[in-house]
Amino acid sequence: MSWYKILKSLKPAIQERMERQSAWLDTQKRLFANFLQRKSEKLTTAQKKTGIILFMIFGIVLCSYVTYTGFRGDGHTKLKVPGGRVSSGTVLRMGESIESLKERSVVQNLIRFKHYMDSLKNTPEGRLIYDSLIAGRPGLMDSLNYIINNQ
Description:
By secondary structure, the chain is mostly helical. The chain contains five helices and no strands.
């Protein structure tokens, strides 16, 4: 039996469960709303106004702080991204087609993979991984070098 048929046969059961969960969630939301309404009915008008004013002041202070720290620019609040994990982006060169851009991207990924494979040889643990990959896929590095050199 194919996965499609299995998933298709499970669809009514999944849909029924989702509907039950949705109904339960709606009930919980209604109970919480009723609870809040009962609590707020006990408050005087002055207490309600004070609560709204305090909430607004808190929101204004929070938004001002976030805006201020964004423009301040000191090193403590900047986002720190680990090196080597940031994509530099891809720029379409003059007269280059999307297909050639995809090919260039694939070749760049292959070069990165080759560099990674070469770096595995530098440590004993990496050497074990490298040897197991090469043993499992003989000719991998030869094919990789061929593709990179004959792009």
